[in-house]
Design brief:
There is one protein chain. The protein is mainly alpha-helical. Helix content is 61%, strand content 0%. It has one domain.
Length: 150
C-alpha cells in the first residue's frame, strides 16, 4: 500500500492520517479542513505520484461509481492545476480526496471485503457535494458534458 508522500506539507500529512487528537468530526468537515491544507507543493506531490494513483484507481472495479468518480477527479486535477482556478477550493478538495484514496492509513482498510473503499467513497462524495458546480464548469470549458451519473 502507498503511504502519504513525504513531499506533502506536514500538517496535511498528519491530517490525512487522522483528525486532531480527541477531535471527532464528520467527513465533510474532515475534507474541508484537509482541502484547506492542500498547497501547490501538495498538488505537485500528488502529480509526482500520478503513476501510483493511476495503478490504484485501476484496481477499483471498472465501471463502478467510485471508479468513475475517481477518474473524473483525477482528470480535473490533471487539467486544472495550471488553468483557471489553479489554486481554487475545488482543485484543493479534489487533490485532498485523491491523496486520501492513494495513501494507506484509511479509516477502513481497503483490503476489508465489501467495505474497504467505503471511507474513500465518502471522501469523494463530500468533494462532489461541495464542488460539482466548479467541476461542471471545468468540463464545460473543455467542451465536455458533465456525466450526470457521478
Amino acid at each position: 500500500m502507498t503511504s502519504a508522500p513525504s513531499r506533502l506539507p506536514s500538517a496535511l500529512d498528519r491530517h490525512l492520517v487522522t483528525p486532531a487528537a480527541g477531535e471527532i468530526i464528520g467527513i465533510p468537515s474532515y475534507v474541508e479542513k484537509g482541502a484547506e491544507l492542500v498547497t501547490p507543493q501538495a498538488i505537485k506531490g500528488l502529480l509526482g505520484l500520478w503513476a501510483s494513483l493511476q495503478r490504484k484507481i485501476a484496481r477499483v472495479e471498472e465501471g463502478s461509481r467510485l471508479r468513475r468518480r475517481l477518474d473524473a477527479l483525477a482528470r480535473f486535477v490533471e487539467e486544472a492545476q495550471e488553468g483557471p482556478g489553479a489554486s481554487g477550493p475545488a482543485l484543493r478538495a479534489a487533490t485532498f480526496a485523491l491523496l486520501y484514496f492513494l495513501k494507506g492509513a484509511d479509516r477502513i482498510p481497503d483490503a476489508v471485503p465489501e467495505v474497504g473503499l467505503l471511507d474513500d467513497a465518502m471522501v469523494v462524495q463530500a468533494v462532489l457535494d461541495n464542488h460539482t458546480p466548479a467541476l461542471r464548469a471545468h468540463w464545460t470549458r473543455h467542451e465536455r458534458v458533465w456525466p450526470e451519473e457521478l
